[in-house]
Every structure is written in structure tokens, then in C-alpha cells.
Amino acid sequence: MVQLQGDARIQVLAIARAVAAGQPLTADDLKAVRIVPDPSVPLVKAVEVDQVIGRSPAVPLAPGTLLAESQLGPASWPATGQAVVAAVFKPGAVPAGLAPGSHALVVTVAKSDVTGTSAATSTPQPVAGTVVDITEGTDGTGTTIVSLLLARADATKLAGAGTDMSLVLVAS
Which residue, 99, 137, 152, 155, has fewest beta-carbon neighbours within 10 Å? Predict the structure, then answer.
């Protein structure tokens, strides 16, 4: 039987709510948590909170993330060759289970003419991306706004699509 003497836990900083890359940290963004440290993972100690407030993360930080010094600095996200685009989806076009980190395909939806038949246009290839954020639209029509991390060329195509879109949740 192993018996531990004392409490080996220390207080470190964790993220209390989602913080975007480049957004200065506030006291409300941080919380102190007690953990048993691993010397191979350099985390920011809770007593250093005053030195962290006002600094910006280099990457987006999710709630519950333990804060490491390497996560702070100039925004380095999205990476070169990538972009984040916000796309608006009508009710029913976003699958259940979609969450930040999900891999998805954005598919354009063929528009119907006044007779109800689909317009004869070429269908672009689906665009693969990773979900960054999901928010409900504020227009009162039930739209959902999904921010997606995509290849830069795909982001430009998607932003200029000018058509209805649907999301397909795919395995990573």
C-alpha cells in the first residue's frame, strides 16, 4: 500500500471561458485550479495572474484549458494558408452533434426556381473544414452562424458563394 504525505497539488491558471487568439486576457477569462504538476508540462502558476492579465493568447483557448506560457504571445492563428470564415445556415442545415472541433463538409444547396425545379447550375465540390464556433443568429429566423477553419482558397470561395449551404458532420 502506498501512502502519500501531504498534498502535492499546486494552483495553476485555467481558462474560464472561450478566448480568441489575439484577445487580451481579463480576470474573468481565468480561474485558478489545483493540479498535481507534471514537470514536463510548464504551466502558469495562479500567483502569476497579474502578469498574465492583458496579455494575448497566440491561439484560441477553450474553457478548461490549462494555461502554458507557450500559449501566450502574438496571434499565430489561423496558420499561414488557412482562414476562418463565418457562414450562415438556415434552420435544418446544421446537423445535431455539431460542436467546436467537429470536422464538417460545407455543401451548397441547389436553388429552386419559381416552379419548384432545381436551377441547372454546376454544383461546386464540398468544402472541408473544422468548426471553430457556433452561435445562434440574432435575426429571429432560426439561422445558425458557424465559424469554420478552412484552407484560405476554400474560405474565399465559401464567403463568396452567395447560395444556401448545408453542413455534413464527418468523422475526423
Answer: 99
